[in-house]
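Feature request disguised as a bug: please show the residue count (1252) next to CAD protein in the output. Example input:
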Amino acid sequence: MYKKYGPDCSKRVLLTMRNTIRCVKEQLDLERIASLGTGQLQALQSGNPATLICQLVHLDGVVSCAEELQNSGKLACTHDNIIANEARTIAAAARAARHLCRDSGELFGRGLRQLQTCAAEPFQRYSGAMADCSAALPAADGGAADSMQQPAVLEAVDEFGRLNYYRSARGAAAAVRARYGNRGHNQPCTHHGTGRCFITSQNHGYAVDASSVPADWEPLFTNTNDKTNEGLLHKSQPFFSVQFHPEHSAGPEDLEGLFDVFLEAVRRSAAGKRADLPDLISSALTFTPETPVTELRPRKVLLLGSGGLSIGQAGEFDYSGSQAIKALKEEEVQVVLINPNIATVQTSRGMADKVYLLPITPEYVEQVIRAEHPDGILLTFGGQTALNCGVALDRSGVLTKYGVRVLGTPIRSIMETEDRKAFAAKVEQIGERVAPSACAETVQQALDAAAVLGYPVMARAAFALGGLGSGFASNPEGLRALVTTALARSPQVIIDKSLKGWKEVEYEVVRDAYDNCVTVSTDMTTLSCYNKLRTTALKVIRHLGVVGECNIQYALSPDSEQYYIIEVNARLSRSSALASKATGYPLAYVAAKLALNKPLPNLYNSVTGKTTACFEPSLDYCVVKMPRWDLGKFTRVSTKIGSSMKSVGEVMALGRGFEEAFQKAFRMVDNAVSGFDPDVQPPSDELAQPTDKRMFVLAAALKVGYTIDRLYELTRIDKWFLHKMKNIIEHTARLSAHERLSAENLLLAKQLGFSDAQVAHYVGITEQVVSKMRRKLGMHPHVKQVDTVAAEWPATTNYLYLTYNGGSHDVDFPGGATVVLGSGVYRIGSSVEFDWCAVGCLRELRKLGRSTVMVNCNPETVSTDYDMCDRLYFDELSAEVVMDIYRLESPEGIIISMGGQLPNNMAMQLHRQNARVLGSSPESVDGAENRFKFSRMLDRIGIQQPRWKELTDIDSARRFCEEVGYPCLVRPSYVLSGAAMNVAHSHTDLEVYLREAATVSKEHPVVISKFILEAKEIDVDGVARDGELLCLAVSEHVENAGVHSGDATLVTPPQDLNAATLSSIREIFSSIARELEVTGPFNMQLIAKDNLLKVIECNVRVSRSFPFVSKTLDHDFIAMATRVMVGAPVEPVDVLSGAGGRVGVKVAQFSFSRLAGADVRLGVEMASTGEVACFGENRHEAYLKAMLSTGFRMPRKGILLSIGTFKHKSEFLSSAKILHQLNYKLFASIGTADFYTEHGIPASTTLYLIFL
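Example output, currently without the count:
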């Protein structure tokens, strides 16, 4: 029904039809093909005896028909509605014209020579006929006995499941209503002859009932989801039909080959030959692998992890590996995992059958293969580390020697994608192109290549991750520096012609061993050629022979549809995890199944539970991924961002509009930022030279009136995004311009992603006032599902987000669950170890039969895998959002102690709003986090600490430092990883550091304490119940105090602490637990010097070392803490001395190679991006394994010695003698060289002077 369009409704219909005709003409350039006015498409060329006829509703005839209906009064509005039948007739005529004209274009593009319309006459005189779903085909001679006399017929079934040819020539076939209607560009159809599944565009609510068609017809295609018919094939005559659009201009082109089949049938018919359509179609759609493919049933599979988290290779591989383990165990395959990253979920008990915390190097992996005898190995779930190791194992013959089969993508395909020269040649074989480039293995080769390509150029290292060693050069000097660095890490460098300013587009591609292939992409917002790139992606991945999941990246011209292929990663990647979380499609899980040669159509969509996994997700929401940089933690580091990755983490925001998701993402990245704030940075040249603060510069530029065109020229950011950003800045001005906040402005602000605090800032009121007003107006967010199918199919998904651009909730709220807050974005100081804690908490709650709710915003995590909990809210970790969820869910309580510092910082805010926090009370949390309160408490209960003073003013701080003597430590409250914590050595240092600390700790006190030199630091982790200590673990630091605990090397069980010291530690720890009334996990750091123990700090939450001590001591501290917080019974345990006689050593993973110019010296503010840990019979064995796991390699020829004090030189003397005996060449600075020469290391043979 058309409702209430007014008295000129019929004229509007006619106008719409004429516009449709105009659009069709423009799209297909039909004026060039033929004149429509005559009702015929004249031959473009002559001389070909084959003549194709298309039953065509003429475009001009559509308008004439409509005008006739209007003049007769049949289109007049009656009872406020247009008569539906006539309206449907016109709409159907328009569709017929549009579809058939497009189909005609497809046929001409495939070499068709002549096309005519036909009259109502028998069509056997023609070579072929193509009928649209809305047209009646002229009657055929049903009695023709010889099928070679029949023309080939391709017909489309209409949206009501009616097939005209059946009615006119073979009798009626019944129609059935599709259960939910098949509409969209991602409908999977299975071909009956080959069993392969193809993605098609459809728009129909009915289908032909396959069981009712005459006996001489058979199904050709079936919808893989609802099993309705999508095409029929005549068993003997050259007739076939489909109910989808093989060539839809805005949809997949998977079955465009049907036009080629049709034309070949036409040619055969014209030549008097038998068309044999079944054979033609099967031949066109059959995939023949190089070797026969069968499903694999390996007994045991070796899975390579990714090692320590680093820039470019982070927590996303913990998610990928965990998904792979889950998939393999469902198939009853034993899984052996090698991964030294002890903080990961995948290395937890209950995941893999066996876990080896060993370096991922060919030598160690071969030892595991020799011991375990696996049938297969998976290389694509551990990032570049696993991939490079697998390639080395293959080249050395290890895999062949032990009969280990590479599962999934073959090694040959991996090497073709990693070797840039081989990749370019492979891509060119199928007519595609990479950017103009050349490969080089020396600096001079690179300079010669750049001279040919022309500057600027980009240099990239092969076999590298995250753009390591890459950059742009505008002259030979710059290129020489880049290439020298790149060749230090890789044997090959690629010199590319610069494509700065082009769009970068990524597709995730899934392919099984039977050539079923789909893409999963979120880069669709501004693409007009999405499907063109999709088709190219499938072609490239098929040509490479990838089996499983991979990633293809393009450079796309902003001014045309020209593109170049940048690269293919034949493995799971960062974007794989992002695409999985953004769409709900579990790429890693599916890839692991496909590695066993399972057919993709046979796997189910885990969200719907009924539809196939051979589909492409639909999104009815917007996704924004935003990186986090921690460049401020490093001195002298370059803040420019470019082709070499520098971010340490990322967030993903969901909303019903770009503005909403965009502003959410800012707050997810940094809880100190309110959103797209124009007042953070002033306009500067960072618009053209991007830095980590560029987006704030862009906001400021919009505020001061930069035009969209000017910003586009400076940034090359698509104008669509710039307009959306401008919407936000315009509303900030609107809010600031009014003294009172109106309901309309508040609602628009919330729909544009403004937080309550953000609105309050611009209006000039408090956050509490805005929040109260919003709730009084009944203005609250609605809960929406991420269901992979945009509500096209029913889904019972628990994957949720909040939006103010909705009118109802997608779920009900039964109440009574336990909410667990995750860690948020990965940053230096808060990484995968806190995700391990959150996941462990969720698992224990489930074991206890409790319903769970997870709130997190990090796509790299296992905790945001929707089957880890009963409900997952992928949203902000802010007090406002958490309270919105709390009010909706009515939970039993919230656990804040498992996600690190970010949830802990919300303790008092949640408490003030009457949220029930489980475990230690918010007052206990505040008593530990507030430096002043904690130091005063230690004084009160008689526990020693370094001398301290609360900052009140600069003068008193200077007097304190003069009194105790420098160095002194500046310590802000409520911070993570030592943020803004610094050691001051002078009054000048003190003033600078106090300003920094006051900035990051605005609402909480800053404390100054005496910094004790040459002291030993000790970490203590434990669990308490109502202040009673239940268990504890003690870890020694190898480095002296002054190196942040996250950067230090830790050893547990302690090797150098005597029983008396351990007893004192236990007493201090117990006293603090009692005073703070701790219930749950907590952590403490102490320093030891001259047989005295002094407390540095205490955190009433989990710490980074909880996974390390839990796995080393073989006791799950998180499970115990979870049980304590929910009141389940727990007995005290003593695990301090360890288990099985093993020693664990944890070593930090640094990413300084990514951070040009950064000072690599360690201090009290954390600098590492990850960690590894290994076990050994003693600390030396464990330490060596752990160091090798970070990428350290034993030196082969020379070693540089530069050792500071006389004491340290003396301590290292025995080691220096051992190195000399091992025939190492020892290079040294002058003072170090003099010392060791004097102590018997012959300078004449092995000692060399260098000047530092």
